[in-house]
Specification:
alpha/beta
Length: 209
């Protein structure tokens, strides 16, 4: 396999295993990994305490952070695998907050206009890996990692996000796409599942070189 530099991205709902998969693939292929660093996020705790007050601030922070990530990835000398994409905020999280009455129409329109301006200047990932998971699987994995600020996530919130993820993925045409059902996979603990995922990725990567 040649050394073409690529942007690989992992997408999926909260608790779907994006970080775990990104780290596993980065180690396997010796890629750089761009993780979503929640510990440095100045809004995340406030957001989960009061979503309506902090939703716009949080989404703008994510948009700016991910825009800078994509710019850095595209100038990298090495293939990078990214945990969550810039598109998920605009297609899933911000519209969901707006629909739930947690972001005003004025703020949402402002956000979408900002996203459209930014997204027109960047390239899509060469390969997108979407992790599809049912609500019970997501809840179990969220509970296992035990992040304090995620304790208050409601089931209806996860369900709404899942519906938006499915709608987005069903129309995704920006590049190559792999869909993995995490209900049936434990790539962290079962080598055969990890090998299955790697074989799927290999077949897509071979078409990218």
């Amino acid at each position: 396999m040649s050394e073409k530099v690529m942007h690989i991205a992992v997408a999926g709902n909260i608790g779907s295993g994006k970080t775990t998969l990104a780290k596993m693939l980065a180690k396997h292929y010796n890629w750089d990994v761009q993780l979503e660093d929640m510990d440095d996020n100045p809004y995340i705790n406030d957001f989960y305490e009061d979503m309506q007050r902090w939703s716009f601030n949080l989404q703008v922070y994510f948009l700016n952070t991910r825009f800078n990530h994509v710019r850095n990835i595209r100038t990298s000398k090495k293939t990078v695998i990214q945990d969550r994409t810039i598109y998920e905020d605009a297609n899933i999280f911000a519209p969901n907050l707006h629909a739930m009455g947690l972001m005003s129409t004025r703020d949402f329109d402002n956000y979408i206009n900002l996203f459209n301006s930014i997204s027109s200047t960047i390239e899509s990932p060469d390969l997108l890996i979407y992790l599809r998971g049912s609500i019970p699987t997501l809840v179990k994995q969220i509970q296992q990692r035990g992040r304090d600020y995620e304790d208050g996530i409601r089931l209806d919130y996860l369900k709404r996000l899942n519906e938006r993820y499915e709608a987005w993925i069903s129309t995704y045409k920006q590049g190559r796409l792999i869909i993995l059902n995490v209900d049936d996979l434990d790539f962290e603990n079962k080598p055969e599942d990890a090998n299955f995922v790697i074989s799927k990725i290999e077949s897509e990567l071979n078409g990218l070189f």
